[in-house]
Amino acid sequence: MSDVTRTTKHGRPVHHWRRDVVELAALFTAVAVADAVANLVGHGPDGPILLVASALALLATAAFHTWWARRRGHAPPAEDTGARPSAALWRTAGPDPDLAPTARDEAPVASALWRVRTTVRDEPGSLAALCAALAGRGVDILSLQTHPLAQGTVDEFLLRAPAHVEAAGLTGAVAAAGGRDTWIERADAHDLVDAPTRVLALAARTALDTAELPLALRQLLGRCTIRSLPGRPVGGGRAGAEVPAEGVLEDTVLRLRAPEGGVITVERPYLPFTPTEFARARALVELDTRLGPRVPRGEDVLTLPAGDAVTVRRADTGDLAAARQMHERCSARTLGLRYHGPVADADRYLNHLLSPRFGRTLAARTASGRIVGLGHLLWDGDETEVALLVEDEWQRRGIGAELLGRLVAMAREAGCARVYAVTQAANTGMVSAMRGLGLPLDYQIEEGTLVITARLDTAAVPDLPAYGEGGRREEYDGPGVRD
User: I need a labelling partner for 131 at 20 to 30 A (CA). Which of 29, 221, 416, 447 fits?
Assistant: First the structure.
């Protein structure tokens, strides 16, 4: 009996009883025919001749069957039903352009990544209409974040669009689907990280280093300007406006109370902040406040050309006393070249310069722990300032060049496009150290003040340690703090 069965839509086998009856009848018929042939061959006068004729008929039938099967195998294919040949067939016989043209590998299409933010009505179907409009232009939605508002919802998309689709085409499609106040910019591979993962990574960076808070806020909120106003401004005067503990959201401005008592102001004039973004920023500041001051203590031992050994590590306000002692050992000329003002006011700047909230400071120390050199990397909006001070007795030994090289490496890792130094034309040591970087330099002189700007080239900047925790190199995404 045949083993051929069929299955129902639930997968259960079903036997055909009619097929079994037909097969049984065929079996009895075959037995009856065989018996008749045997009697005829054995008892008839022409039995041997009939037997030979039967054999020839069987051979002719087999030959015809073989010919017919080969002819059917080379017949043209039937109408396409949408089915594709199996993978095994393609691996053995190779793709046949006549049989399955849809199985060919298509050439990759060039694409670009975009970040798009738009406001839509908070009603059923509004997001579906927006997605349909983007799909109509061949745009793939990689991620979506929603920011609920009192009226409407802000949807933020990460899109992969064909290269020929321009920004105007995307904004037009969004506007046609009901989007308003649309903002768009090009994205890169770093934006492919989902929002929860990015926020957790920023929180981890903030937990390791106090100086990371402004940078983490900038990466969290996108292109913006971050200003940190101290609780006690340098030179006296009134502090920034009082901010409640929960912070203030003012359309395109965020005001948050800094852990040390000052005010952190985040401005993004091109795009209002949402309550969701405000809550995320406030959570990062609260984390920084709870953990308190902390600075990674990785250090590096340098052997100077003269044979002296000094250590270089991060410094903060805990090194204020040692920094003031270095000021006392510096000459009035050295302090004047560094601070461009009255020498008596030099100590008043130290608390600000050593605060991790306004940048990063490297200190060069002798074996006895005495500070003999300070290098500052100060966030100034979208720009970055570098400054050096080396004790007179230790000048011309390479300490300034070592500190500057490490500061520039840190600026590069922070995503800075350039760094600048404000000095005087008479400060040949600073000019020489900037030239020693081997980077393209721009010079501007105004009323005796020299501003040297170095354009950072990742291929030319020396690969120096960034002084993360335990000496680990860390990745940063851009400055954004000014005093």
Answer: 221
